[in-house]
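no rush on this but wanted to send it before i forget. theres a chain ive been looking at and ive put its sequence and its fold in token form underneath. please have a look and point out which stretches look like helix strand or loop to you. thanks a lot i owe you, the record is right below:
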Amino acid sequence: MAVYNYDVVVLGSGPAGEGAAMNAAKAGRKVAVVDSRREVGGNCTHLGTIPSKALRHSVRQIMQFNTNPMFRQIGEPRWFSFPDVLKSAERVIAKQVTSRTGYYARNRIDLFFGTGSFADEQTIEVVCPNGVVEKLVAKQIVIATGSRPYRPADVDFGHPRVYDSDTILDLSHTPRRLIIYGAGVIGCEYASIFSGLGVVVDLIDNRDQLLSFLDAEISDALSYHLRNNNVLIRHNEEYESIEGLENGVILHLKSGKKIKADAFLWCNGRTGNTDQLGLENIGIKVNSRGQIEVDQSYRTAISNIYAAGDVIGWPSLASAAYDQGRSAAGNIVDNDSWRFVDDVPTGIYTIPEISSIGKNERELTQAKIPYEVGKAFFKSMARAQISHEPVGMLKILFHRETLQILGVHCFGYQASEIVHIGQAIMNQKGEANSIKYFVNTTFNYPTMAEAYRVAAFDGLNRLF
């Protein structure tokens, strides 16, 4: 058994692992990264964020082609299969792997491909695909192994028509009807993707409102546009059993309903990838969803072991995971790059997309904060009209007296980009965080960013 010594060993090469490894390496530490795949990028690149967003982009292009009258000069509306649009996602994944492999090589970070587990608090044993065991000894270790779909024992995921959000990428046909169980972010995104391909989708929600953490107006807008695209949303439902047939699936609900479809997609919760880490050897405990508890420095119960990304739970976003990993390493190397990551915008890649940051109206009302609302509807914006993207709006919530921006909520074309302008102003100190910034700043015209100026005038006009 070969033994290698490092300053830092990182378990996982997803966003959190990459953020940790790069920060430690740039601070002069000798770093190794262990990943169970033969390629870097983690679940984010291979199963989650990248493939689903690439799929969504392709579906949006198809929808634009099929609904824009100008394209009728080229030809009639076309139907595309799910495997067809998956090919574009596979090309993006390959490019991402190439880019990220280059980062590790450039920063002289050693990569070990295999299953890593703790032998003790400073030793990781890596079982390589060929059966060889490598021993890595490190002063500090960062756990960044990510998460996978939660799989309840009473659902037969071995059935060829039953999928989760990982295995759906192996779908080799396009179902005519699909049941999606779980209406969280992933469920809503896949409902958009499949309905955009002409699939009839039943979206089963355990709650009484889609994505209830969103501003209510934005959540309502999402519900409307999903329904408008032939998604049937069933609220306050729970499964009794899932019956696999030779050519489909029947979902039995506790309410007595039965729903039949060609395929079933489970999108209800995720589990931390901790079961193969040998945490029992070092005394680190996980919760019922396999997640590790950390303090605000991303340190676990053992002082030289840190954790970051989906494996610690909230917010389980690639953007936050990278910053958490970078911050964990910042704490290790003490180079002023540490921060507790809580300024996290929401980015939801439904069709149309959603993004928000800060408080929503419900939270401000409950806190008795006197706020006002400014809105800009995209249907009136020149850039949206030019782009044939009339759906959506920007909504700014601000304090009636101080004019401080309290929340930014956006629905529609480029929402996940637009929100960052509001985020930048919200993070300014004192009077610099004011809705007046948007009326005293010249925006390019025509742009989607100009919605801030329109929304600011709308809000200021409501004051008396």
In short: The longest strand covers residues 133-143. The chain has three domains: 2-149+271-333, 162-268, 352-460. The domain at 162-268 is CATH 3.50.50.60 (FAD/NAD(P)-binding domain).
